Protein 1
Amino acid sequence: MDYLGQDRRRNERGFSTIQLIVTLAVVSIVIGFALVNVSSARASLRLQNSVRLLGGYMEKARLDAVRRHDTASVVFTNTSTYNITMDFDGDGVVQTRSFSFDDGVSVISTPLPSVSFNWRGRTSACTITFAMQGSNGDQSWVDVSDAGDVTVNSSVDTLPTPSYTNVNASADIYSNMVVAGATVRNNTADCGGSGGGTPPPIVGSGSGGCTVTATPSSISIKKSGGTTGTVAISVSSSSTVTASGPSNLLISPVSRSIGGGGSGNFSITSKNNTRGTFAVTFSSACTSVTVLVKVTN
């Protein structure tokens, strides 16, 4: 018998159906991963492009305010569009123009942030953070300090750690004139709030007299898990309360059942370096309340 010929004919048949299916499946998986990576990379580029354009326009508005000895402003009208009021053409005529982020990019700071520069290029508030997020969940931010400094993805609150040199008293240097120092300058110390104490609770009302109460109505936590804040939620009638917020905040638990007249605690922690004030909403079957979470250094 011609066994050699039979083997040759089998080999000439090529791939079997199962082999083709397996090969196509592997190719599909590889292409799928590639498309996901490309999509994520494009989303990150759109985010960084939008952030740096915003930072650049803020610098231009600040310089325009100083040049004209007047004011210039950047005001968000919604989560993806902002208005800039300044002299764009250098002809002394102030105009307001509208600009939009790239697709999928939105500001997540609450409330919608804005900044106004005075004739010295300074602002009337302490550091203002414009936190933004892309369609892939990446986050970035622009900081504007009270001195008008604009930075992207870095903090303008805390200055770099300086090095100190010991100086010995001599005929020309008196020991009582040497100032000791060991701490890092933190500009947030100049930004004290109005009074202390715990913010009051906030109450949401729904149909049939249903209420949901959050205590306190706002909290402050440190970035990257530095501290954890706690919000107590009370309900007038038994309900499952669900919490939702931006992706830079870890809320635990995400939902919990609370009996009528009872309460339950939710903990909130920052997951990354994104700072600013963000809204966390607690929803029941009939109503909801929003707590403001300020993430600081």
Protein 2
Amino acid sequence: MSFESVKAILDSHAYDSLIGLQEDGWLEAKGKIPYNLHTPEGRYQLAKDVSAFANGAGGIIIVGLQTTKHADTQTEEITAYDLCAQAEFDAHRYVSLTEEYIHPAIEGLNVYWLPVGQDGTHGLGIIEVPPQNANRQYFLIANAVDSGSKIKQFVFGIVRRNESSNDPFTIEQLYRYTQTGKSSVFQTLTRIEEKIDTVILNQSRNVEAANPEDVYAARAARILDEEEP
């Protein structure tokens, strides 16, 4: 599956085709009321799920479906409808909460409700998270929950889509990314520095009984186009 293939099912109104699909890196299915938006915990769960797709290759959350977990593969399979009324899926509320809780704003986020069935009173809630520009990742959760209370501008985290689950970065991973960055310029400079160190090491091995400090100083002087000390 992919973001485009799941969206094609929705756009063609072939909703029965969702039954039998398994959750994966682009699809997550939820029951008719998956998030209690009146609580900090529920709002955090929404932000966690949406930002996970934004930090991956994009994806779609579909509200109004039942799933069954396969014990052998630990994956969830869509097995039936659990349709929600339009009033139960407040698209505007979903959008405003993602804007409040996720930074930076997700480009192209699309939240809407689709009627299913002949009477059209119940249907599916859709949260589309298109693939994002890699230069804008990672999307951070600005508010977190501690003992049921929201902590403003103090705690944040990164969640990334991993197969069919949403996994938060460990503190070690988060720290490493903040230290090393993702800039191609930084990576290029790092490689250049490593090559210079290799050249210096090789030269020092070829100079019999040479003082390593003198070798480094001479190399640095040539790089800077200066006279040797």
Protein 3
Amino acid sequence: MQIGIVGKTNTGKTTFFSAASLVDAEIGNRPFVTIKPNQGTGYVTAKCVHPEFGKQCMPQNSKCENGIRLIPATLLDVAGLIEGAWQGKGLGNQFMNDLMQAAALIHVLDCSGTTDAEGNPTKGHDPANDVRFLEKEIDYWVRGILEKNWAKISKGATASSKPWEPIADQLSGLGMGEAQVKDVFESEHFGPKPSDWNEEEVLRFAAEIRQRSKPMLIACNKMDLPQAKENFEKLKKEFPEKIFVPCCAEAELTLRKAARAGLIDYVPGAKEFSAKGDMNEKQRHALDFIQTQVLDAWGSTGVQQAINKTAFELLKLIVVYPVEDANKLTDSKENVLPDARLLKQGATAMDLAASVHSSFAERFVAAIDCRSKQKLGKEHALKMNDVVKIQLSH
């Protein structure tokens, strides 16, 4: 799974990325510090099921720390946007191309209002404008891709019994699936003949496709600064349909680096840390500030919460554990609960088999719920934290 870290320039995107992945990316208080995309691994975290079974897990595709399963996700920190990016201004074309295969986006927003529309330091900027701006840029970009061959596409769609197919073909390179395009086309928001659509209808179509194929969570960054709390409450009222997470990426990065240096014990997403190494006065003061102004105030730095909410609330994923031995909960090499897999809510036992290996779907016979030992058919819908044995034909 790939998650794009997006936003206008100088909002803390790269700090968020570095805090989540511990990749040492260049961070600076000026526009366009990020030119080439930074790629790293972050983690979706969930309580591991091993304590329930009285066993110690032996993760292979993930990690388990203090009973928390860490499931890897690729994070991509792309170039910051400026207005007119869809027309190629700034690094707009590169930004858009880098996001093609992202399953979801985390919009890192300067909630303190101290970054203007061009990414320069200021005071009193309304972050609500940035919410609208970023969505608009992506919508116009998608529309631009449709309009490159719109006369031919719309004519073919109007004449076809499956009018969504020519449109889906045009958008396939953006990671936008045919099923998503079909759902939007059949949503009754658009006329049945694409050849009759005007520019506004094509833009609305692009916006709906973007919402479905690139859902976006908003990480309200710089929550330790003045005005951020007031702006955060205003944003929630103005955009009640969106997911906002209060965030302080700089605090998370400081905590992660302090933990790596052995100065503190800290689990990403936790509401506190414990000192364990010798610190100088400056280090102690910085960590005390983070505890009182960030962790005590907001319950966490918000970075891990943003990733988890992207997975579980925005993308509506569940964690499922496939095994080969229903009693021992092991794979063929005796690894206990070796894999934790992220699947869409409603995913079936057959979907789980296919996620393990493409050939498993063809050889699927049945599945076994390792808790109840009941046999499950291929259409059985799985639940969060199911542990499942897949039975295959030889």
